[in-house]
DNA sequence: AAGTGGTCTAGACCACTGT
DNA sequence: CAGTGGTCTAGACCACTTT
């Protein structure tokens, strides 16, 4: 096993995250000041500062100069610019990612998707996975994969590797296309995300190309109340 | 007035970004080491380190311990959230765009927005416009504008020029930040979009910077059933 | 061996908030 | 006024990659 030596600022982050996870600190509650962390954890102020700054960056905390640091209203954020995978996203927030594999099969897929993936026989790998953040369902990922691009897809353990990670490894992405929309969930998605049918869902449809071939088509469903997309442009 | 003093690490980031934007540094190219930046820009190593670390975080650079810092390969040619002009969008589909100006006023804006726009007195221009496609409401645009960036905002005829067009004309964009989410509409938005309260809405919150200043904050509401965001990445 | 990134410290000055 | 966050410095030690 790897005896992982965590950086000090990670320990500081975990100290704060622990108090939030345990319920001791609710959204809006005040967090220790940098000097309090310095005294309590015997770290330098720069280390405490980095820990708090990164927790702000990942959306866990909010800071008000001259006033204090507070627990942010819990809402997930993702970065469409970096095509990150959901597991890294969740772990970056210091939370636990768990994937539940609901389906993993070879199917004759709908005609529209067969056409999108350029499959003459319509046969594609199909997976349905629910990604959890701290045991709360965050994303339902339904994916159709081109067998010619990723022939070993069925033998991957998706509780350890996300489909996205696997696809990136076997066939580097050339092109990604996204469609984002707001919609009401269908009963299956609502149930998997533990939502009422009236609660809006943010859907990202993602098509990827690799080796000059359409590689996969994914529908990523998220609870509107627990997920947001963030992006930055700079010129 | 707003005498903006940029943090040193921002200047370091801009130094590197400038060399990338100009084309001097291509993806894969080596960037100055931390010590080189220390010597060249007369900053401390911690400052150079923070600048480079944040550029890694935003996907611009990649670092290899023991080796060096490099321009990241995966650059998005287009953003999922393209800077779109709703009027051009609609006209591009061969349809008729019409804007109804519901509000155009100078207001004391909410504290959070005043902070975002860097307004000490909290006074900002405020507009509320409904954009129609062939007489059907497509987007509700609520916008707060920094008077220091666009002092003539109140005299613009928004039935002829969109706020976005006007802002682009008077002050070229430097940076845009987006947050996208799915939500249920509030009664005002539902009524303006002619929606049931149960129909999901796609909200884009957009903050723009110009001339080194926060220029505007906009909430763009769209009927989930009539609007989607599209984007492409290429490598 | 020299260079590089990763981390950490113990100070410092500033602007702002709250009392 | 004391407390807070925001930034910055000039050192330091370490593990790693490159030469």
Question: What's a quick, concise take on this entry?
Answer:
The structure is a homodimer of 235-residue chains. Chain A has 235 residues and is an alpha+beta fold.
Model description:
The structure is a homodimer of 235-residue chains. By secondary structure, chain A is an alpha+beta fold. Chain A folds into two domains: 8-71, Arc Repressor Mutant, subunit A (Orthogonal Bundle), CATH 1.10.10.10; 76-229, Chorismate lyase. Chain A is built from seven helices and eleven strands. Chain A has helices at 8-21, 34-41, 45-57, 86-92, 111-117, 163-170, 187-192, and strands spanning 30-31, 61-64, 68-71, 76-78, 97-108, 123-133, 136-145, 173-183, 201-210, 213-223, 227-234. In chain A, the strands form three sheets. A six-stranded antiparallel β-sheet of chain A has the order 5-6-7-10-9-8. In chain A, strands 1-3-2 form a three-stranded antiparallel β-sheet. The first copy, chain A, has a two-stranded parallel sheet with strand order 4-11. Chains A and B meet through strand 8, strand 9 and strand 11 of A and strand 7, strand 8 and strand 10 of B. Strand 11 of chain A pairs antiparallel with strand 7 (173-183) of chain B. Chain A binds a DNA duplex (19 and 19 nucleotides) through residues 7-9, 33-35, 43-47, 49-50, 52-53, 63-69.
């Amino acid at each position: 096993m790897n005896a992982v030596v965590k950086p000090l600022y990670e320990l500081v982050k975990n100290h704060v995250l622990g108090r939030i996870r345990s319920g001791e600190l609710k959204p809006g509650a005040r967090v220790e000041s940098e000097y309090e962390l310095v005294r309590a954890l015997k770290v330098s102020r720069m280390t405490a500062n980095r820990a708090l700054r990164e927790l702000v960056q990942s959306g866990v905390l909010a800071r008000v100069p001259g006033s204090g640091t507070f627990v942010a209203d819990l809402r997930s954020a993702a970065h469409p610019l970096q095509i990150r995978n959901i597991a890294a996203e969740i772990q970056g927030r210091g939370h636990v990612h768990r994937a539940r594999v609901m389906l993993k099969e070879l199917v004759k897929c709908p005609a529209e998707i067969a056409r999108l993936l350029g499959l003459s026989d319509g046969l594609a790998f199909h997976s349905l996975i629910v990604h959890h953040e701290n045991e709360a369902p965050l994303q339902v990922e339904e994916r159709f994969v081109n067998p010619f691009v990723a022939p070993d897809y069925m033998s991957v353990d998706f509780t350890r590797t996300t489909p996205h990670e696997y696809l990136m490894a076997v066939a580097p992405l050339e092109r990604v296309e996204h469609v984002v929309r707001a919609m009401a969930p269908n009963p299956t998605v609502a149930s998997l995300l533990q939502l009422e049918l009236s609660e809006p869902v943010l859907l990202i449809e993602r098509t990827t190309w690799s080796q000059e071939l359409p590689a996969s088509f994914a529908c990523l469903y998220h609870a509107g109340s627990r997920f947001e997309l963030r992006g930055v442009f700079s010129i």
